Amino acid sequence: MNERACVLVVAKAPVPGLAKTRLTPAATREQAAEVAAASLLDTLDAVLAVPRVRRVVAMTGDLDAAAQAPELRRMLRWFDVIPQRGDNFAERLVNAHHDVADLPVVQIGMDTPQVTPWLLGSAVVGTLAGDATLGLAEDGGWWALGLRDPVHAMALSDVPMSQPDTGRRTLDALHDRDLHVTPLPVLSDVDTVVDAARVAKLVPRSRFAAAVAAISTAGQPIP
């Protein structure tokens, strides 16, 4: 296959007690891990439907202890799986881009299960046409970063991650490298139960929606 780019998923094994901890106490640790696993599986499904790309997952955590471990292992057979490297999240992102640096890279996480193959394909096209693409998240972060030359991932080195201004500071860091950045649609990622319920309504027939529906608050499904 003539691969035009790499779609890189940066993921954490959905281990109970370590995954989606902000969904508790509304969800049990096991339910939160099931939501994380469903989100990752739905994301991987979308990536598999994007044509002519190398598919890579940069993984951290104990997959053997994860929710939906057998299904995740079956799905990951279709991906090149590499370990995450680095002492903090920004460093792990930079290294993941470096490790697949033979192609332009569109990097996403596992917190936007509503992502579609069309949207990922558009990110690939935009990345190939310019210098970079960036998809901001509603909480101030970002959900996707495309770089025609992955060496520019070094721009992330000095950007604090998981902050309300991470998206803006990432955009500034890319502009500081004189990169033309094409914006992608703003998406809501999944951090809280409210986020999860809102995103589940966007993809009602997904694994993610089913996992969210299993969470109960005071004996009642999440609205």
Largest sheet: 7 strands, mixed
What is the succession of H and E elements?
EHEHEHEHEEHEHHEE
Give the overall pLDDT as a whole number: 93
Topology, number of strands: 9
Summarize the structure.
With 223 residues, this protein is of the alpha/beta class. The protein has helices at residues 29-48, 69-76, 89-99, 117-129, 166-176, 193-202, 207-213; strands at residues 5-12, 53-60, 80-83, 105-108, 132-137, 142-147, 181-187, 216-217, 220-221.
Brief descriptors of the model:
21% strand; globular; alpha/beta; Trfase_1_rSAM/seldom-assoc; Glycosyltransferase A (GT-A) superfamily protein (DUF2064 family); two-stranded antiparallel sheet; Nucleotide-diphossugar_trans; 9 strands; Spore Coat Polysaccharide Biosynthesis Protein SpsA, Chain A
Please outline the helices and strands.
Blueprint: E1 5-12, H1 29-48, E2 53-60, H2 69-76, E3 80-83, H3 89-99, E4 105-108, H4 117-129, E5 132-137, E6 142-147, H5 166-176, E7 181-187, H6 193-202, H7 207-213, E8 216-217, E9 220-221
Parallel strand pairs: 1-2, 1-4, 2-3, 5-7
Antiparallel strand pairs: 4-6, 5-6, 8-9
Helix pairs in contact: 1-2, 1-7, 6-7
